[in-house]
Design goal:
Number of strands of chain B: 21
Oligomer: heterodimer
Distance between the termini of chain A: 11 Å
Largest sheet of chain A: none
Number of domains of chain A: 1
Shape of chain B: globular
Helix content of chain B: 25-40%
CATH class of chain A: Mainly Alpha
Radius of gyration of chain A: 24 Å
CATH architecture of the largest domain in chain B: Roll
CATH architecture of chain A: Orthogonal Bundle
CATH superfamily of chain A: MetI-like
Chain lengths: ~350, ~525
């Protein structure tokens, strides 16, 4: 198993090199020239040329890639064209916000998704099943930005219960230890800040969780329906095992593998930044930032973010694979254990 | 045993992801105060985007300007209601008879936020970093603001002399700008590798506290401020990208002031008991004829087309009362504006006759698809409205619309009869607008207008000291431009802001800045 993990980590290297080449080429081939964007209204042709020269954009493309990749290997992803800040610093000042939102959203989505899925499967064709699947259908169909705006208008605009934007009241912001405000405020022992951060999380996390929850609920339902047909379930029931225990220990545990896969994939994509949710709720995460940088042709930042997201995605998938082995003892990753 | 091994593996994988993710979090910063201050001590201003940075030499965007104006002072500043310049860090100044030497007498006892002294050396340091050989390609405004400067001499601690290569009256206006011109602490620049984008240190009424990326910037009152001290203790600039979310934030009490709103939400804001501030805009939204080729190398034909367009009606329907119809290139509050300047007035019959006589039946228009600060409706809506007017006088219009970046490349290529553009004034000097028609760079002068007499007057205007004689030059330039009809000036967009009724003395200056020192909250 450890050998397997090590092997998977080694496999990251070709993946990251591939990703870096693709994003590098896409930005340079399809994106507009960054010089007029950076220089703004006064971008005369001379100024544009001087700027391109100064930022190495007139070099041959392979030389530019060589500079980028050698920099990346030493942990230097370059400087943002637009803000003149190191790319790593720009990314890491926003990534905790994305992680915090993604983790809370995936927790909400998993809890409610599995719950709805299990109930729907067990009470198949009942009113619960129909209501649950209707909710799931609404969840996958509803555009997230629209749901977000509705939530804002209703809970902030009309009822004034919850804040509409941001992560925390700036005057309550805890000192940054981890960058996760929920954890930081607990470390600082500041319950006001904790409550405020939680209040700020409710709307964006709910909007974001909706889609994942719908997918998880549908997957749970179909997986559970299949498992509930198995002979061992009948056997368990015949042995007199209580229905609750049959569902939890026999059916759900066995039906969990595809559900975990879906949760893993969902978490992976949420960590890549939920662009629409972040934009609607002014959530200071990596998703809306990346889109803004793509629009500004800020090559170094886009390259850096894509590399980071690829890295995180592969890691989350690795975690999912390891969880498989944990859930199903029949799955093994090395001969030695087999 | 196997189970234990599996648990170890799981724990390791979790730890790996965990370590990677937490490694991504910022290092410990100075812990902020946990006791929330009174709400009335804190002004919250919500804007639509994050500033690019807070080093005046390294940024060029309006979002940065709104924050920087509260942190820095320049040698000069703008009058509250116009673009006339007033003393600031320079309490007085003299210009030599040949217009080549500016001597500034500086305020005494002024300190930067880091405790260092503001003096003539600091002024020299700030200008020198934006002159060759120190200037870098990233300093977007350096050549605009200091392009005419030869060198800077420190006469004594409180006196500084700036020598120019040629007389330049706009130079004084440049010094009041919030780009390039504000004075930054030399110590901070030295400590931060000549880039204070993240750690601004000025002499202004507010001090920088912290910047949570994509969230907010917090400022605190500078209690040692040399001038009139600010009223509110804290200022928070919040970044709320979505326009409707920004309105909700105001109505929900999460912001005291917001900007970047449009006509569609005005009612929603006023119904909630909030107020609207309508600021005049230092900009021009125009249509340009390609004067370098047929058919519009003919001024008579340009005039005929302009005559076919009912500009006041167009502006009213397109901008719903939140843009001023342009009768001249210069906005009405600027020096050099004169009421006597008018454009050709609407007369569809006369236009149709002239166009018929010329044999013109079709034109090729290019335009942009995004809204711009000077055109909230976007270029395509504007082009289509004009297409409607021209169809009435027998001209078929082919419109090609592009996103902004592609559009600028199309402009450079020069393949169009008519194009749309606009300009946001930089320094409040009339030359800043009128020079566009004399510019050699086709990406600035999209009409490709060339007129030796016009260019001569432009050069004269730059040299002539401010006053009625200089203003007369710009009035004359306006008249030439109107007679030649290279442009059809359409509108001056206003800036719409909103604020809570308990906010007093809020204003948005026409140069796009929001000084908050005088604003109070009750």
């Amino acid at each position: 198993m450890l050998k397997y993990i090590f092997k998977r980590i080694l496999m990251l290297i070709p993946v990251l090199i591939g990703v870096s080449i693709i994003v590098f080429l896409i930005m340079r081939v399809f994106s507009p020239d960054p010089a007029p964007i950076v220089l703004g209204q006064h971008a005369t042709q001379t100024a544009v040329e001087v700027w391109r020269q100064a930022n190495g954009l007139n070099d041959p493309i392979f030389l530019q890639y060589y500079h980028f990749i050698t920099g990346a290997l030493t942990g230097d992803l370059g400087t943002s064209f637009y803000t003149k800040m190191p790319v790593l610093k720009e990314i890491f000042s926003r990534f905790p916000a994305t992680i915090e939102l993604a983790v809370v959203a995936i927790m909400l989505a998993s809890i409610f998704g599995i719950l709805i899925g299990v109930v729907s499967a067990v009470k198949k064709n009942s009113i619960f099943d129909n209501a649950g699947m209707l909710l799931a259908l609404v969840g996958v169909s509803m555009p997230i930005f629209w749901l977000g705006i509705l939530l804002i208008i209703f809970f902030s605009g009309t009822l004034h219960w919850l804040p509409s934007s941001g992560r925390i009241n700036p005057m309550l912001q805890p000192g940054s230890v981890t960058g996760f405000y929920l954890i930081d405020s607990l470390i600082a022992g500041n319950m006001d800040a904790f409550g405020d951060a939680l209040r700020h999380l409710v709307l964006p996390a709910s909007a974001l969780a909706m889609y994942s929850m719908a997918i998880i609920a549908r997957m749970t339902r179909s997986s559970m329906l299949e498992t509930l047909q198995q002979d061992y379930i009948r056997t368990a029931r015949a042995k007199g095992v209580s229905e609750g225990r049959v569902i939890r220990k026999h059916a759900l545990r066995n039906g969990l593998i595809p559900i975990v896969t879906v949760i893993g994939l969902q978490l992976g994509s949420l960590l890549g930044g939920a662009v629409l949710t972040e934009t609607v709720f002014s959530w200071p995460g990596i998703g809306s930032y990346t889109v803004a940088c793509i629009l500004k042709s800020d090559f170094p930042v886009v390259q850096g973010v894509v590399l980071l997201i690829a890295f995180v995605f592969v890691l989350v998938n690795l975690l999912v694979d390891v969880i498989y082995a944990f859930l199903d003892p029949r799955i093994k990753y090395s001969k030695k254990e087999g | 045993m196997k189970k234990i091994r599996r648990i170890v593996a799981l724990a390791l994988a979790v730890a790996l992801v965990g370590v990677t993710l937490t490694a991504c979090s910022p290092k410990k910063e100075e812990s902020s105060t946990s006791a929330a201050p009174k709400a009335s001590d804190t002004l919250i201003y919500a804007q639509g985007a994050e500033p690019r940075g807070l080093d005046p030499a390294l940024v060029d965007d309006g979002e940065s300007a709104k924050v920087m104006i509260n942190i820095y002072d320049g040698l000069l500043k703008y009058n509250k209601d116009s673009t006339k310049v007033e003393p600031s860090l320079a309490k007085s100044w003299e210009v030599s008879a040949d217009g080549l030497t500016y001597t500034f007498h500086l305020q005494e006892g002024v300190k930067f936020h880091d405790g260092t002294d503001f003096d003539a050396e600091a002024v020299k340091f700030n200008i020198d970093r934006q002159l060759p050989p120190q200037v870098t390609a990233d300093m977007a405004y350096a050549s605009f603001v200091y392009g005419s400067v030869k060198d800077v001499q420190v006469v004594d601690k409180k006196t500084v002399k700036v020598n120019l290569t040629a007389p330049s009256t706009p130079f004084l206006s440049n010094l009041a700008m919030v780009m390039s011109a504000p004075i930054v602490s030399p110590k901070a620049l030295k400590d931060n590798k000549n880039n204070v984008n993240q750690v601004p240190v000025g002499t202004g009424p507010y001090k920088f506290v912290k910047w949570a990326k994509d969230e907010n910037i917090v400022l605190v009152r500078n209690d040692e401020y040399w001038g009139t001290k600010a009223i509110a203790k804290n200022v928070i600039f919040k970044f709320i990208k979505d326009n409707s979310a920004r309105v909700v934030a105001l109505n929900n009490g999460e912001a005291d002031m917001i900007d970047g709103i449009d006509a569609t939400v005005v009612k929603q804001i006023t119904d909630a008991g909030n107020k609207i501030f309508q600021a005049p805009g230092m900009n021009i939204n125009y249509m340009a004829y390609n004067t370098s080729r047929k058919p519009f190398n003919d001024a008579k034909l340009r005039t005929a087309i302009s005559q076919a367009i009912n500009v006041p009606e167009l502006v009213k329907s397109l901008y719903q009362g939140y843009s001023e119809t342009a009768t001249s290139i210069l906005p009405t509050f600027m020096e050099g504006y004169d009421k006597s300047v008018t454009q050709v007035s609407y007369n569809a019959e006369a236009a149709a006759a002239a166009i018929k006589a010329s044999g013109l039946t079709s034109v090729h228009m290019i335009t942009y698809t995004n809204p711009r600060p000077y055109n909230s409706a976007n270029g395509q809506a504007l082009a289509e409205a004009i297409q409607g007017y021209l169809s009435k006088v027998g001209v078929t219009v082919k419109i090609d619309a592009f996103d902004w970046t592609t559009y600028k490349q199309k402009l450079k290529a020069g393949d169009y009869d008519i194009a749309f553009y606009g300009w946001i004034g930089d320094n409040g000097d009339p030359d800043n607008f009128m020079y566009l028609l004399a510019h050699e760079d086709p990406s600035m002068n999209i009409a490709l207008y060339k007129n030796a007499e016009f260019n001569k007057l432009i050069a004269k205007g730059v040299e002539t000291p401010a006053g009625p004689a200089r203003n007369a030059i710009y009035t004359q330039l306006e008249k030439i431009a109107a007679a030649d009809a290279a442009w059809l000036p359409i509108s001056h967009a206003q800036t719409l802001c909103a604020y809570k009724p308990n906010i007093h003395n809020f204003y948005f200056h026409m140069t796009g800045i929001t000084p908050l020192a005088g604003v109070s909250k009750q």
